[in-house]
């Protein structure tokens, strides 16, 4: 459904791909039209989300066949094969349980949520949990606010990689843009954050997902130079 080869690959500050125009126009239109209604999400926060395999998700997904197709694409062996074959050197460097012979049935599973973010939304600098292998965020609305950017952080000065960090240099800024996708390897130094959103005229709509490992830490080494 998404052609990674149409994106641009980067290795710094950690391996990632930026794909402009992730979806064909007709598919994008269906995804936007089938995006969930958040009126039923009774959470008074700057970000509201619907998480895969929760009750609200199960009520919504039968009305969203194009999103079901997207989920099936992301959960496919084909997508997993691309990740393994593209990043096997980087995965090996960190002592990952993922290798060229790995299969999804070897303890891997999927996380995904559909979100809207509004005034004062932000996230502090962090990396994702030890079980994460590969992450993505795809924006479904153009920027109509200040801030709210996905920030990638450099960690060259660190000698260990705790999950949270108070201050790290910004290496790269990914602005929200409809149909732009960011896909990145969730290596131990994959620090990221979201700058504070203000003067919001419309919601930041996006889908966020990951491949994870249910049997513990996916990386055998948590620090390399």
Question: Can you put this structure into words, describing what you see?
Answer:
- This protein has helices spanning 25-33, 55-60, 65-74, 77-93; strands at 8-10, 16-19, 47-51, 108-117, 123-126, 132-139, 150-153, 170-174, 181-185, 192-194, 204-213.
- The protein is an alpha+beta fold and 225 residues long.
- The protein has one domain (4-213): Sandwich (Jelly Rolls), CATH 2.60.120.
- The strands form two sheets. Strands 1-2-9-6-11-4-3 form a seven-stranded antiparallel β-sheet, with no helix packed on it. The protein has a four-stranded antiparallel β-sheet with strand order 5-10-7-8, with no helix packed on it.
- Strand 1 and strand 2 form a beta hairpin.
- The longest helix is centred in the middle third of the chain and has 17 residues, at 77-93.
- The radius of gyration is 17 Å and the shape is globular.
In short:
With 225 residues, the protein is α+β, with helices and mostly antiparallel strands.
Strand order of the largest sheet: 1-2-9-6-11-4-3
The H-level CATH homologous superfamily, spelled out, is q2cbj1_9rhob like domain
Overall geometry comes to globular
Query: The CATH topology, please?
Result: Jelly Rolls
Could you list the spans in which at least 5 consecutive residues all have pLDDT below 50? Answer: none
Throw out a few tags for this protein:
single chain; 225 residues; alpha+beta; Jelly Rolls; seven-stranded antiparallel β-sheet; four-stranded antiparallel β-sheet; 4 helices; 11 strands; 19% helix; globular
